[in-house]
Amino acid sequence: MKRIQQLLFIAAITIGFTTNAQTADEIVENYFENTGGEEAWQNIEAMRLTGKAGMGPQEFPFVQTVTDEGKMAIVVDLQGQQFVPQAFDGEMMWTTNFQSMEAEAADKETSDNFKQEAQDMIDTFLNYKEKGYSLELMGEETVEGTEAFKIKVLKKPVMVDGKEVENFSTFYFDKENFVPIMSEQTVKMGPQKGMQTQTIFSDYQEAGDIYYPYSITQKFNGQVGQTIKIEKIEINPDIDEAMFKMPVKE
Amino acid sequence: MGIFYINQNHFLMKKLLSLLFLFGMVALSLNAQEVDLKGKELFGDMQARQIGPALMSGRIIDLENHPTDPRIIYAGTAGGGVWKSSNGGASYSPVFDDYIQSIGTVAIDPNDPDNTVYVGTGEIWTRNSVSVGDGLYKTTDGGESWTKLGFDASERISSIEIHPTNKNIVYVGALGPLWSAGEERGVFKSADGGKTFSKVLYIDDTTGVADLIMDPNDPNTLYASMWEHRRTAWNFNSGGKNSALYKTTDGGKNWKKIHNGFPQGDLGRIAVAIAPSSPNIVYAVIEAKDDKGLYRSTDGGESWTKTNGDFGLVVRPFYFSRIVVSPTNPDLIVKAGLQGSISRDGGKTFKNLGNMHSDIHDIVFDVKNSDIMHVGTDGGIYRSYDGGTTMDIVDNLPLSQFYHISVDDAEPYRIYGGLQDNGSWYGPSSSPGGIEARDWVRIGVGDGFRVLKHPTKEILYSEMQGADNVWRYDMERNYTKNVKPLPVKGYDKLRFNWNAPMAVSTHQPDRFYIGSQYLHKSEDMGNTWTIISPDLTTNDKDKQPKDSGGLSVDNSGAETHTTIFTIAESPLDQNVIWVGTDDGNVQITKDGGKNWTNVVSNIPSLPKNSWVYHIEASVHGKGTAYAVFDGHARGDMKPYVYKTTDFGQTWMSIVSPDVKHFARNIQEDYENENLLFLGTEYGLYITIDGGKNWSHFTNNFPPTAVHFIDLQKQTNDLVCGTHGRGVIIVDDISVLRELTPQVVEKNVHFFDIKPGVMVEESGFGGGSTELQFVGPNPGTSVDIKYYLKKRHTFGKMNLEIQDMEGNKIVSLSPGKSKGINTVTWNYQAEAPKMAKGKTFAFGGFTSPRVPAGQYKAVLTKGKETYETTFEIKNDPTSVITPQERITQYETTMKLYNMQEELAYMVYQVDEMIEFAENLMKDDKGATKVANKAVEALTDLKKTLVVTTGDNYVGTAPPELREKLSALYADIAQSYEAPSSAQLDNLALLEERFNNAKKDLEEIKSKEFAKVEKYAGKKGTDMMKLDSKEDYLGS
């Protein structure tokens, strides 16, 4: 009896949210509430995601380490060789040249632009106000065959080939459970410039105290590009800070 | 504390999940009563494929460039939406794909040019084939998202002007409906950034704004050219007493006509432009009976002087009425036209612009350098870097405007069609490296319409406007013959529609039909013609005026009316022929043309004389047919779609309120009579319940006008000819046949999987540059399709391919969408695990292909498992024998296993070296034994894998791993048995491999055994190696 009462109570709250969730703020609040509570999200200082990334059946194992300070390193294992296709030390992005297998710094514009994105390492919506983002509820739309709230996240402008350009992305939150199921962005630089990319989130499962999407699929104009399957998530693991720094050439 | 939180959250989440489950049950019980088989969710992740072509591109209506940043240019197109360039016009991307695709004007807010842009929809160069718009839109984020600002009934918006310092003040010039009277015309003003508008200049319900421009120095001064005009299906009228040029100097409160120096009498369309660098200089191009041409004013329109009346300035004002002045030089002007004209002396004299597609509609000068121009034509956008002399086309704008398309049964099948002002073409549905410009073959000039392939020969028929030419084209000989029917004794002068109907027969391959007002039949591919009907039209003389055009006579033939527009011979009975006419007759013969009956009066609720746009004779019954009627040429934008099953005696409407715009074409499915596809002005609609409910198909399919649809029988590909976005294909619609109420009630449903065919193709392809459009291929993978009743968001979901014994071959990433999901598998298993070296062995990234046979797809969703089986086949066109295939597969796998074994060997070597090195690090006494082992192992390793160099020009000579992987990749990628060279090489490598194995065992039993013995004596922990299975499985 007690359980049923609890259930009805929660049902009432949820239904209340479903019908009244008009503002972007409320939707984001519900998202955090339904995925472990904002406090649990705030307690995250770092995450280590282990999984496989690939295009079609070709997969390669990776480990991505991120911190709430915006540092990031991806380590990929190819033919037993470990290398870092991309890392960010908080100021500078660096990559590994596939020909020489040596570390090289990304151009300054890329690093500077990434500094803002790096704030989203744990989650785009966590502390979004402090990050200087603004949210706009654009309405409702059917994506992934599912009714969703459409929220635009406006960030600070980025520089593209020497010119300032607006920077935002659109997130779609499943109306039923308030978790993001897709985000969308226009590619701003490089040869894919102008193309729409969609990132699809699913397989939300426990990761420490939170729920996190273990399956992430990147699409280009609706065509599947890269898929990421996360196998393990460690919250606040021990981290050797050196991994974020670009190695000095011997 | 931490534990508490974990438990609490876990508890909450579980509750949330059970709650969702409960909701799911409620939803289920509600749905069980009445299942509406419609909605975007029906299609899930089914994606359309836009294949262009872009080489001839399509009609451009309006160009607009950023006031300070030359990288940013917008293009508003006739039927393909709005495109944005952010690289100075090198290439463009679509930014308006969710909205109506016919564009009248694009305007950038000078107060916020990076972000705020207005789009007025409905093209304004009012030819007979124009699409319609549905109002005004605004973006405040550079085109990412748009808000509708009303003007729903305006149909066409020609101009938008924004106050240079107050973003809230916006003027809109509405041209208004072309085909009917309408009051949403004139100049409108907003003081709140477009939220609300008030009409500030209105003449009457037939006169709209052709041009509205603002003085850049004085935003209260605007010029508005008002144009009286009307189009009907059989006539066009430009001009009248209401056409005039007006000026306001008080922000639209008062307007006065400024005609001092203008031609006398009625006026037509007037183009107007201010010289931005000297705003008192104003140019107007005036359509009039006499003295038409370019007029110049140097006093802000107070007085006018005619400067030029050349052909290029006055030709077809309804189509070319744009004059543009350089931003820096008031005497440098360009006028849109057949070729486009440029003047450098303030309009006194002109020369043509350089060679490009004819019919120039708009031009913009680079804001800083007037040598750079962007020009919009009937055939895409051109750019010039030398002041308009040399023109270079933008290669990535797939805006082609098909009137018709058809497909054949070749493999891959070919797509045929004719385009507005861009001739007729055919191209493949797939091509190595993608469908490129060079894959398309021209098979007609002028305006192209129907192109029909002879059912059995490499012969096709194509035509140009009004059947001026009807070509029989020999595809093998590249040879044409004009087989157009000509007037014969005893019959009236032939009236062919602009878009004249032709048909071929499935019963008699050499039979060929053409419709004028009569139905013409040829049994010898067009050499001889017989008229097999009386005049099937109303032959209403009122709809056959002598001249069209109004002030400027324009007898292109585009308005020829009272003609046959569609012909359909029943695929079940060659004597049953349907004919539909543009003036509203539905005629049927059941005896091959001897007797004809007009059955249109049997159709309920159909306005009289509605244009019969398409009749589709069904494969499901001799007396079954579909008819689509279109009333837009008299301002009726509703869809009319009917079906008969009794030769037209009775008809039922099969369109629902889900379809918002008028329709032109219907295609039935050949298997499921309830599955139908409707081409409308606003994109593609699909019904799976015979027309009770229709769903808008929007997955990578913009709401562009779909003029014609064909269903390819072998592939079940739905091929759509759009009038603005080229050919759009929805690959293999057969899954939609299985979507029944029972299926959509299941949590997971695997659709029948069509056998995968491993196409033996390993050629080269792809000769396009980065800036050239390349249409994507359908792919040759096997498509695993399933339906999910609900989107999978929480918990695990995986998809594995297994052999029939349940052994995993590969794990795929399944789609999680509600509705239909498609996962492709390219027949490849996982790549071998490779030995660790200093560099990559690139051959090792090759995955082996599995043999043909039966396989399983196993979907795991939470605790539930669903599976289905499917077949994969070898290429039926292959000449390779089964025995050769076995040898190929076995050799591949032999090399695969050798590489994995080598990987394990190298792993052991590395572990042993590490062990030995660690031992001597801790214990100097071990140095001698350990060193010997390390030396022996290192020497061995150097022969197994590359241990130096890089992946490029610093690469080291290949060792065993590199040699094995190169041979492996060669053989694995091939379909044939290995060559003797390859087998000899394999024998060589095998010998070396076996020696290496022997060497390793020897080191293990000699040098390394000593190390282990020493370590054992010292009580050091012994080396622990993973078993081979564990190592390879990791």
Describe this structure in words.
The complex is a heterodimer of chains A (250) and B (1034). Chain A is α+β, with helices and mostly antiparallel strands and 250 residues long. Chain A is built from four helices and 13 strands. Chain A has one domain: outer membrane lipoprotein receptor (LolB), chain A, CATH 2.50.20. The longest helix of chain A has 19 residues. Chain A starts with a helix and ends in a 15-residue tail after the last strand. The N terminus of chain A is likely disordered. Chain B contains ten helices and 66 strands. In chain B, the strands form 16 sheets. In chain B, strands 14, 15, 16, 17, 18 and 43 form a six-stranded mixed beta sheet that branches. In chain B, helix 6 packs antiparallel against helix 9, helix 7 packs antiparallel against helix 8 and helix 8 runs parallel beside helix 9. The chains are: A alpha+beta (250), B alpha+beta (1034). The interface between A and B is large, with 67 and 78 residues.
**Alpha-beta content class of chain B:** alpha+beta
The description of the largest β-sheet of chain B is: 6 strands, mixed
- Largest two-chain interface: A-B, 67 and 78 residues
Number of strands of chain B: 66
Spatial order of the strands in the main sheet of chain A? 6-5-4-3-2-1-13-12-11-10-9-8-7
The domain tally of chain A reads 1
How would you concisely characterize the structure shown here?
Chain A is α+β, with helices and mostly antiparallel strands and 250 residues long. Chain A is built from four helices and 13 strands. A 13-stranded antiparallel β-sheet of chain A has the order 6-5-4-3-2-1-13-12-11-10-9-8-7.
Give the helices and strands, then pairings.
The complex is a heterodimer of chains A (250) and B (1034).
Chain A: H1 2-20, H2 24-34, H3 38-42, E1 46-55, E2 58-67, E3 72-78, E4 81-88, E5 93-96, E6 103-105, H4 108-117, E7 134-143, E8 146-160, E9 163-174, E10 180-186, E11 196-207, E12 210-220, E13 223-235
Antiparallel strand pairs in A: 1-2, 1-13, 2-3, 3-4, 4-5, 5-6, 7-8, 8-9, 9-10, 10-11, 11-12, 12-13
Chain B: H1 2-33, E1 48-52, E2 60-65, E3 73-77, E4 82-85, E5 93-94, E6 103-108, E7 117-121, E8 136-139, E9 147-148, E10 157-162, E11 170-174, E12 186-190, E13 198-201, E14 207-214, E15 222-231, E16 236-238, E17 244-248, E18 256-257, E19 267-274, E20 282-288, E21 293-297, E22 305-308, H2 311-314, E23 323-325, E24 333-335, E25 341-343, E26 351-352, E27 360-365, E28 373-377, E29 380-384, E30 392-393, E31 402-407, E32 414-419, E33 424-428, E34 441-442, E35 448-453, E36 459-464, E37 470-474, E38 479-482, E39 502-504, E40 512-515, E41 519-522, E42 530-531, E43 549-550, E44 564-569, E45 577-581, E46 586-589, E47 597-598, E48 611-617, E49 625-630, E50 639-644, E51 652-653, E52 663-668, E53 676-680, E54 683-687, E55 695-697, E56 706-711, E57 718-722, E58 727-730, H3 734-737, H4 741-744, E59 748-750, E60 756-758, E61 782-788, E62 797-802, E63 808-812, E64 819-825, E65 853-861, E66 864-874, H5 882-922, H6 927-944, H7 960-973, H8 980-1005, H9 1007-1018, H10 1028-1033
Parallel strand pairs in B: 16-43, 60-66
Antiparallel strand pairs in B: 1-58, 2-3, 3-4, 4-5, 6-7, 7-8, 8-9, 10-11, 11-12, 12-13, 14-15, 15-16, 15-17, 17-18, 19-20, 20-21, 21-22, 23-24, 24-25, 25-26, 27-28, 28-29, 29-30, 31-32, 32-33, 33-34, 35-36, 36-37, 37-38, 39-40, 40-41, 41-42, 44-45, 45-46, 46-47, 48-49, 49-50, 50-51, 52-53, 53-54, ...
Helix pairs in contact in B: 5-6, 5-7, 5-8, 6-8, 6-9, 7-8, 8-9
